């Protein structure tokens, strides 16, 4: 099947898509991105992703490339052209193309926009969720503005590669206080020894996960005891359950942390139930 990408105002064949060599995203990581889960051909958690996108752009003083209504039309068209029923839709906005200089171009240039969409085997993901996955821990090496969804992801890429080399699906960053911040591409959660569901609060240096936000709505309705209280790797290894959340992973149970098996080594009831409830909510609200 031919794939298509949206690049700066037009759709082109995926294999022919290109950006200018002086795009500031390519040379300076001067840009932001968002990833929508696609469910039944629709964009999940759309409102939350748009809200975070505009905030990230504003924090970096990058102009909005188009209105939200126009962008939604283009995202939907990317999903349609690529015949994606279940998968991911990726958006990247950079400051644009200009002579290389660390300072912003003056006068400003139009922001550059790239959108792609691809299918994901949800059946395989569901199968993985039934058996659980493993994570490793790595030192926190990222910049101090992880609340901005920047395309500057080299520390995340190195952490994810370290996880792959050790047979894990994710790496959890650990800060100077010995506390888990988040994963390389997901938020981190545990159900502690007292049965309380815990994750890091967004006042810490973490990304304000959109999947996390929707999941918090589900958690409040489900009645699961919850606290935005940080935890150490040692606490996580003694926890009853653990899982990760994100547009790519959705809710994936974790059964091993740094080689230590959690409980009986099987996904817990809370994580499995929250995965089901989250998917139901996301499908219901997808646009």
Automatic annotation (TrEMBL):
Catalytic activity: L-isoleucine + 2-oxoglutarate = (S)-3-methyl-2-oxopentanoate + L-glutamate; L-valine + 2-oxoglutarate = 3-methyl-2-oxobutanoate + L-glutamate; L-leucine + 2-oxoglutarate = 4-methyl-2-oxopentanoate + L-glutamate
Pfam families, per database record: Aminotran_4
GO CC annotations on file: cytosol
Coiled coil: none
Residues of the signal peptide: none
The organism's place on the tree of life at top rank: Bacteria
First-tier enzyme category under EC: transferase
Keyword set, alphabetical order: Amino-acid biosynthesis, Aminotransferase, Branched-chain amino acid biosynthesis, Pyridoxal phosphate, Transferase
One GO MF term attached to the UniProt entry: L-isoleucine-2-oxoglutarate transaminase activity
Known EC number: 2.6.1.42
Pathway as given in its UniProt record: Amino-acid biosynthesis; L-isoleucine biosynthesis; L-isoleucine from 2-oxobutanoate: step 4/4; Amino-acid biosynthesis; L-valine biosynthesis; L-valine from pyruvate: step 4/4; Amino-acid biosynthesis; L-leucine biosynthesis; L-leucine from 3-methyl-2-oxobutanoate: step 4/4
Required co-factors: pyridoxal 5'-phosphate
Record keyword Repeat present: no
Record-level GO BP terms: amino acid biosynthetic process; branched-chain amino acid biosynthetic process
Homology family: Belongs to the class-IV pyridoxal-phosphate-dependent aminotransferase family.
Described function: Acts on leucine, isoleucine and valine.
Name of the protein in question: Probable branched-chain-amino-acid aminotransferase
Source species of the chain: Caulobacter vibrioides OR37
């Amino acid at each position: 099947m031919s794939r298509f990408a949206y690049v700066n105002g037009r759709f082109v064949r995926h294999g022919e898509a290109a950006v200018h060599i002086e795009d500031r995203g390519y040379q300076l990581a001067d840009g932001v991105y968002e990833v929508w889960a696609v469910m039944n051909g629709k964009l999940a958690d759309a409102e939350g992703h748009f809200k975070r996108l505009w905030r990230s752009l504003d924090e970096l003083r990058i102009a909005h490339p188009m209105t939200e209504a126009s962008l939604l039309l283009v995202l939907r068209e990317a999903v349609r052209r690529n015949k994606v029923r279940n998968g991911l839709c990726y958006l990247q906005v950079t400051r644009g193309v200009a002579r290389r200089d660390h300072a912003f171009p003056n006068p400003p240039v139009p922001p550059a926009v790239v959108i792609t969409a691809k299918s994901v085997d949800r059946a395989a993901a569901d199968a993985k969720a039934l058996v659980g996955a493993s994570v490793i821990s790595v030192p926190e090496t990222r910049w101090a503005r992880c609340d901005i969804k920047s395309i500057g992801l080299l520390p995340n890429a190195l952490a994810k590669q370290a996880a792959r080399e050790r047979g894990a699906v994710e790496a959890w960053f650990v800060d100077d206080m010995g506390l888990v911040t988040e994963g390389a591409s997901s938020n981190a959660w545990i159900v502690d020894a007292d049965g309380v569901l815990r994750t890091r609060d967004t006042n810490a240096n973490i990304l304000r996960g959109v999947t996390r936000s929707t999941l918090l709505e589900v958690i409040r309705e489900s009645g699961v005891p919850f606290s935005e209280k940080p935890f150490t790797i040692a606490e996580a290894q003694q926890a009853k359950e653990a899982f990760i959340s994100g547009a790519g992973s959705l809710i994936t149970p974790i059964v091993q942390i740094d080689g230590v098996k959690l409980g009986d080594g099987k996904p817990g009831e809370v994580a499995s139930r929250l995965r089901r409830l989250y998917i139901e909510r996301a499908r219901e609200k997808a646009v």
